[in-house]
Amino acid sequence: MFNFFTTVTADNARNLSPVTLAFVGDAVYSLYVRERLVLSTSFSTGTLQKLTSSEVSAHGQSGLLERIMPLFTEEEADIFRRGRNAKKPTKSKNASVAEYNRSTGFEAVLGYLYLTGQYDRISELLANGD
Questions:
Q1: pTM to 2 decimals?
Q2: Each residue's pLDDT tens digit, 94-123
Q3: From CA 128, how far away is CA 130, in angstroms rounded?
Q4: What is the Cα–Cα distance from 61 to 68, expressed in whole angstroms?
Q5: φ, ψ of residue 117 in degrees (nearest 5)
């Protein structure tokens, strides 16, 4: 049986593809943005969707990344570089290649932190980006 919030060791997480880490990190960031918007506004779901889409886009993540990248530990910076430089199976439709690569790195960091159970660290990084 699968348990939600199952964590893995740092070694196991590092052995995952950075694109796989980014896949998880994309969901983590999307949920973070949705929850923050729902709990801080009274917008309609249509407006919430538009706001969420603009924040979780590669372009939207770029500004956030500029603010939190200096806070990365050496390990997080390494995960970011692996994600940024990874060969991706898809191309971005609405972002530059550089923005898309950086957003993949950012999402890989979030995926790594989530899978290793470092929820407080995710909160700390994202709070510094708001």
A1: 0.93
A2: 788 888 899 999 999 999 999 999 999 999
A3: 6
A4: 11
A5: 80, 20
Q: Residue 25 phi/psi, 5° resolution? A: -60, -35
Q: Which long-range contacts (CB under 8 A, 24 or more apart) does 49-58 make?
A: 56/26, 56/29, 56/30, 57/94, 57/95, 57/103, 58/92, 58/94, 58/95, 58/99, 58/100, 58/102, 58/103
46-71: pLDDT as tens digits: 999 999 998 899 888 988 999 999 99
Query: 5: which 2 tokens?
Result: 């919030």
- Give the phi and the psi of residue 97 in degrees, each rounded to 5: -60, -40
Active site residues: 26
Sign for the CA dihedral angle at 129, 104, 16, 76 comes to negative
